Amino acid sequence: MGIGTILLIILVLALVGVLPLWPHARSWGYGPSGIIGVLLVIVLVLFLMGRL
């Protein structure tokens, strides 16, 4: 398993963790999940292009 795959899995888990569905994250809104989502898209594009 390469570093890109591990990074992708960590970002997906972080995205699920910051969704405002959890009781501890209800007051956060969609800000943290938006930031993690953008990072996930960037890493996914780099992974598909073979740069990661």
Strand content: under 5%
Estimate percent helicity: 55-70%
| Overall pLDDT level | 76
Class inferred from helices and paired strands: mainly alpha
| Count of separate structural domains | 1
Question: Could you spell the SSE succession in H and E letters?
Answer: HH
Low-confidence segments, ≥5 residues, pLDDT <50? none
Tally of separate helices: 2
**Number of DSSP E strands:** 0
Radius of gyration: 12 Å
The separation of the N and C termini measures 12 Å
Biggest sheet character? none
Assign an overall shape: elongated
Explain how this protein is built.
- It is a single chain.
- The protein contains two helices and no strands.
- With 52 residues, it is mainly α.
- Helix 1 packs antiparallel against helix 2.
- The chain starts with a helix and ends with a helix.
Topology, element by element:
Elements: H1 3-17, H2 31-49
Helix pairs in contact: 1-2
Short structural summary:
The protein is mainly α. The chain has 2 helices and no strands. The protein has one domain.
Based on the model shown, name its key terms.
0% strand, 2 helices, 52 residues, elongated, mainly alpha
